[in-house]
Amino acid sequence: MHDNDFSLFQLSLQQRAASVEMLLSELLSDRPQSGEITRPPRLLAAMRHGVLNGGKRLRPFLVMESAALFGADNSAALRVAAALECIHSYSLVHDDLPAMDNDDLRRGQPTVHRKFDEAAAILAGDSLLTYAFELVASEATEISAQARLSLITELARSAGIGGMTGGQTLDLEAEKVKPDEQGIIRLQAMKTGALIRFACEAGAIIGNADQRERECLAEYGSAIGLAFQLADDLLDVTSDAGNMGKATGKDVAAGKATLVSIHGIEWTKRQLSGLVEQAQLLLEPFGEKAGLLKEAARFIAERKN
């Protein structure tokens, strides 16, 4: 890949992130929506701290760029992207709690329970989760009712017992009983991979893609989801808190089994290269239109934070 392609990807990622940030800020204003009674200021402040604290907005980018392959309505894709970011952010708010990962920093800022308190963090996470489904279900997301229903179903599956929260459960259990290699792959595909896979498949649903195209993007999402977690585990070993914006070395300190701890750094780098190649091959049917998604795979594998 050429440096110009990568620069174009980074610019697009920043532009998509800015669009999502702007929409989320508008959606989380202090003005009650139709059907709401009021928005308690402290809860709203905790929600805003949890979701408007920077970040690459990679998952929203994947929704919007996948939808763009099919010439889909950009405003609908943006709303679904914002909904997914609400789900992702709620998961981080809850994962940071003392009952789970017990983290003080997130993206270089105090975690929600540190800035506010644990009750505020729990309620902020709950509110972001439920708001995400309202955003997708609303008629303001101007796609067919059937497409909205499909998105709601797939998002619930990706975020729930067989997806992200199930994966977090397995991750917590892994602190007591180390899983084997297949167990690690399974929990990572659920905890991290499920929402990334959804992000890519969501674009196909928004764009009324056929089943083959939808499966292609879902498989691409699975490949980059595994790459994302492998890169994360690698960074936990090789980076520092200043670059990451959160604590590093926690997996090693806890004796947690990861593919990096089993196979080592060089093996992990080779696997990442293979996953990038696999992801990019899955996009071949879409031709030049998939250029930015191909660069996204490379970015995920090579990121520094």
From TrEMBL:
Q: Which InterPro entries match?
A: Isoprenoid_synthase_dom_sf, Polyprenyl_synt, Polyprenyl_synt_CS, Prenyl_diphosphate_synthase
Say which enzyme class the record assigns: transferase
Report whether Metal-binding shows up as a keyword of the record: yes
Enzyme Commission number(s):
2.5.1.1, 2.5.1.10
Q: Which domain of life is it from?
A: Bacteria
The Gene Ontology terms for molecular function here are: (2E,6E)-farnesyl diphosphate synthase activity; dimethylallyltranstransferase activity
Cofactor(s) essential for the protein: Mg(2+)
Keyword annotations of the record: Isoprene biosynthesis, Magnesium, Metal-binding, Transferase
Q: Which PROSITE patterns match?
A: POLYPRENYL_SYNTHASE_1, POLYPRENYL_SYNTHASE_2
- Which Pfam family, any one, appears in the UniProt record? polyprenyl_synt
List the CDD domains hit by this protein, alphabetically: Trans_IPPS_HT
The family note in this entry says: Belongs to the FPP/GGPP synthase family.
- NCBIfam families under this entry? FPPsyn
Q: What is this protein called?
A: Farnesyl diphosphate synthase
